[in-house]
Amino acid sequence: MNLCRGLFGALALLVLVCSGCSSSPGRPAADAIPVDPEDIADFGILYAHNCAGCHGPDGKGGASIALANPLYLAIADDSTMRHVTTIGVAGTLMPAFAKSAGGMLTDKQIDVIVRGIRERWSKPDVLHGQAAPPYSASSAGDASRGLQVFGAYCSSCHGPQGRGGPKASSIVDPTYLALVSDQALRTTVIVGIPELGAPDWRGNVPGKPMSSQDISDVVAWLASQRTAFPGQPYLLSDKPAGEPQ
Asked: Is residue 65 predicted with pLDDT exceeding 50?
């Protein structure tokens, strides 16, 4: 009996000592143990580290389109958003984020981002029963007609040739056009840029919304303004490299 009591006491002491190890000096706290990046499933963390730099910390835009624009979310479905996030958009600022395409995120993490954007910033009744132009064009636009459409819908802000006007800057700047895809141009024409006061497809001419073909034609004209080598040209000089010009 005394032996049993002694063993029980030793066991109880061992349990007590072990339970105190979690707070012993030098032992890291539970929240200090590194988390495998693939296990992160919090939308706030994923958005802040992967999206906010271009789309704004609150989704209201920055270098790229505002994701907190309900009109954008009304025309871009989950499949479209997931596709763009997965593989990016070649030739633009949008990189591929999926591991399968060379990025850092798992498919589940991309789903968390897409679902979080939809849950936070979409408004089911934003169109008020109106039919918005489709996200993607069903046919190629006509650049020559696009200039006429631009004159009717866009020139009052951007100027007759798109080089800037009283209310907006140049829309044909070569560097800008080199950084955006045709789809990005179409999306911008449809949903506008609310943070800058740019109207959507319904607000350029009151009572006369742009048709899907109008938008396709404007995009075709804008695309035709791209240059082969955008940017500021280097000055020609006979002086060796490294010497003051």
From this structure: yes
CATH fold of 143-224 reads Cytochrome Bc1 Complex; Chain D, domain 2 (1.10.760)
Cβ 42 vs Cβ 113: under 8 Å: no
DSSP, collapsed to helix, strand or coil, labels residue 162 as: coil
> SS3 for 137-151, per residue?
CCCCCCHHHHHHHHH
Read off the pLDDT of residues 182-226 as tens digits, 9 standing for 90 and up: 999 999 999 999 888 899 999 999 999 999 999 999 999 999 999
Terminal-to-terminal C-alpha distance of the chain: 99
Architecture of domain 37-121: Orthogonal Bundle (1.10)
Contacts of 98 (CB under 8 A, 6+ apart): 85, 86, 87, 105, 106, 107, 110
* Domain residue ranges in the chain: 37-121, 143-224
Are domains 37-121 and 143-224 of this chain identical in fold?
Answer: yes
pLDDT digits (tens, 9 = 90+) for 141-154: 999 999 999 999 99
